[in-house]
Amino acid sequence: MMRRLQRPADLRGGLARGMTRLGIAVSALVTITTAFPSPVNGQDMPVPVSIQIPLLTKILAFDRTFSERVGEDFVIAIVYQSGFRASVLARNQVAEAADKIAFGGAGQIPVRYVFVDVDQSRSWRWRLANSAADVIYVAPLRAFDLSLITTASRSLDMITYTGVPGYVASGVAVGLDLFANRPKIVVNLAASYEEGCDFTSELLKLARIE
To answer: Model confidence over 95-137: pLDDT tens digits?
Structure first.
């Protein structure tokens, strides 16, 4: 299991102070109307990536263990398929969104990302294992066994996150869905525990539990 460099103790406090009202943050990020930006695939990803990534940083502030596991930067491994157009679009949108954020409040942590192409059958597991990622973002995939990713995430102590809500029931720890025209957090409790997360009750009250 990869070990992360421990951040100063006040990091978690700073994150929590800045993000303790996640429900308000969700509403502030987006009021969904008919002008809501089109997702990569309306059926697969109901919440646009431009909303998913800022929410990711807020969701992780409610993981009691996260500040002890993140290192000198916040790394997202974007898992995608080069042979699937919707997946490549999602990859590009995640990268674009990640370029616009920093993790945390006053003591911001730089955000970087790495691409992990599961169509590269001989190297994707190696690339993921050597990415030093804190989060695995699972893009829309076609005809791919998700358990290969979630098995790797548990062994590597990496949190899985996705904009495809159906993937949460299949073992991804955290995702986003659409409910009453607003983003809804979806948590697979068993998966999140196996990946080392310890989400607070404040987050779980706002989430749909799988």
So the answer is: 999 998 876 654 578 889 999 999 998 899 999 999 999 999 9
Quick: pLDDT tens for 145-179: 999 999 999 999 999 999 999 999 999 999 999 99
DSSP codes of every residue in the chain: ---PPPPPHHHHHHHHHHHS-HHHHHHHH----TTPPPPSSTTT-SS-HHHHHHHHHHHHTTBTTHHHH--SSEEEEEEE-TT-HHHHHHHHHHHHHHTT--BSSSS-B-EEEEEEETT-TTTHHHHHHTS--SEEEE---SS--HHHHHHHHHHHT-EEEES-THHHHTT-SEEEEEETTEEEEEE-HHHHHHTT--B-HHHHHHSEE-
Q: Is the pTM of this model over 0.90?
A: no
> Class of 47-209 per CATH?
alpha beta
